[in-house]
Amino acid sequence: MCYRQCCKCNKKLPATPGNVVKCETCGHRQKVSACSSQYHLQALLRHDDINTTVTFFNDTLLSALQLFKVDTKQSLSEDIVVEAFLNTPMLFVTFHKKTKVVATVSVAEN
Ligand SMILES: [Zn+2]
Fold first, then answer.
1. Percent of the chain at pLDDT above 90?
2. Which residue of 7, 36, 37, 74 is 20 to 30 Å from 110, comparing CA positions?
């Protein structure tokens, strides 16, 4: 769900238990702590009896979590994220028709 991004080529870095990671794409070595984290989450949406799997990336995932009143400053575990999504009765999203990447998120106001 969460991966780190190469600071040189922006490609996904392999998970490592150490402090230094080498990018498999461009060979750049970097400190794990210096790489930015990227979150992505796939969610199944149901609309008019049609199921669509959409993908949240960093920006939309974080704005969804903020709508859910989740503190996004903490380190986000998969449990926290999944629970927040499951606790939300209604979530409106717009997504790109072809790529299924979520563009905007909002929740129903009561
Ligand atoms: Zn790289």
1. 35
2. 74
Token pair for 64 = 């969804």
Residue entry with tokens 């989450």: 41
- For residue 32, give the DSSP letter: G
pLDDT at 88 over 90: no
CA atoms within 13 A on the CB side of 14: 13
CA distance 102 to 28: 30
Task: Evaluate whether 2 touches 15 at the Cβ level (below 8 Å).
Answer: no
Q: How far is the CA of 39 from the centre of ligand 1 (A)?
A: 18
pTM of the prediction? 0.72
**pLDDT for position 25:** 95
Whole-number Å distance, alpha carbon 106 to ligand 1 midpoint, is 34
Q: How many CB atoms lie within 10 A of CB 102?
A: 24
Rounded to an integer, what distance in angstroms lies between the CA atom of residue 19 and that of residue 31? Answer: 6
Give residue 46 CA to ligand 1 midpoint distance, Å. 37
